[in-house]
Amino acid sequence: MTAPRLIPGTAPVLLIADHASNAVPPGVDLGIDPALLDSHIAVDIGTTALTEALAHALAAPAILATVSRLVIDLNRPPDAAGLVPVASDGHVIPGNVTANDSERDLRIAAIHAPYHAAIADAIARLRPSLLVSIHSFTPALATAPDLARPWPVGILYNRDDRAARAGIAALAARGLHVGDNQPYSGRDLNYTMDRHAEASGLPYLGIEIRNDGLDDASGVAHWTTVLTDTIHHVLRVLPSAA
Predict the structure, then answer these.
(1) Which residue in 51, 119, 157, 174 could disulfide with 164, CB within 3.0 to 4.6 Å?
(2) Which CATH number fits the domain that encloses residue 112?
(3) 181: part of which helix (H) or strand (E)?
(4) This prediction's pTM
(5) Mind telling me which Gene3D superfamilies this protein's record contains (predicted)?
(6) What does the alpha-carbon distance between residue 192 and residue 75 come to, in Å, rounded to a whole number?
(7) Low-confidence ranges of the chain (pLDDT < 70)
(8) What is the pLDDT of residue 219?
(9) Do the beta carbons of residue 59 and residue 50 sit within 8 Å?
């Protein structure tokens, strides 16, 4: 199953989870230890449960990826060097090292293109006032264990920071240490939002939750409450999202 998963909803928000799955389609051999499929290099840990819970709390439609980012990274442009990653956080992906251009093109046609077409179709049909991208990040990279990642939550954005500023303010008002374009910058890694929001002037929130806050049901419930309130706030204060 490589088609994205769609959750129906009526709220003026479209939730998107680019890295919600660790599934590897039949016929693809990554050549890695299967245990790595449960790690952050293969999936944004906790984002499936969080996106599902947010969709329920907001009555919002959602689109979730159903293929691991190690097969193809849906948050990268088709011509990006890291689209089919040959290594991630110190782990070589042998099956991608040996993948030829035909294999890359096949993954784009079978997985990447339909995923982004589904997002474009949902936006055209539903005309949401706000896109919300749900990601998670690891507390520490194996390749940079001394690099602190102290933020429990980060908001990413590129040129359009309308929703981001409102979201950062709402989260900070709760006393949270919010990463402003951290743990990495949306000016560098923002393809899905660049393509579907920035390009058309649609406001968006790029949300990153540190994955140790999503490792159990209580953590998911906590962040569902926090983000539901935050999204409602953004919808209220954005004139273009009214």
Answers:
(1) 157
(2) 3.40.630.40
(3) none
(4) 0.96
(5) Zn-dependent exopeptidases
(6) 5
(7) 1, 240-242
(8) 98
(9) no
Helix (H, G, I), strand (E, B) or coil at 213: helix
Please state, in angstroms and rounded to a whole number, the distance separating the CA atoms of residues 1 and 138. Answer: 27
Determine the residue type at 181.
Answer: N
Domain that holds residue 209: 5-241
- pLDDT computed for residue 241 by the predictor: 42
Q: In the block, which residue shows the tokens 């290594």?
A: 87
Tokens (6 digits) for 15: 């939730």
- Cα–Cα separations (whole angstroms), residue 165 to 46, 182, 190: 25, 14, 16
Q: In what order do the strands lie in the sheet with 13-17?
A: 5-7, 62-64, 13-17, 130-137, 204-210, 153-156, 178-180
Q: How many CB atoms lie within 10 A of CB 174?
A: 11
The tokens of 132 are what?
């919300």
3-state secondary structure of 23: coil
Distant-in-sequence, close-in-space partners of 212: CB < 8 Å, separation ≥ 6: 139
Residue ranges of E strands in the chain: 5-7, 13-17, 62-64, 87-88, 91-92, 130-137, 153-156, 178-180, 204-210
Q: Nearest to residue 207, comparing CAs of 170, 238, 174?
A: 170
Tell me how far apart the alpha carbons of residues 202 and 58 are, in angstroms, rounded to a whole number. 19
Buried b (16+ CB within 10 A) or exposed e, 22-34: bbbeeebebebee
pLDDT of residue 98: 95
Residues 152, 176: contact at Cβ < 8 Å?
yes
What pLDDT shows up at residue 228? 98
Strand partners, 14: 131
Domain count, the chain: 1
Q: Could you give phi then psi for residue 164, rounded to 5 degrees?
A: -60, -45
**Cβ pair 44, 163 in contact under 8 A:** no
136 contacts 47 by C-beta, under 8 angstroms: yes
CA–CA separation, 168 vs 137, rounded Å? 17
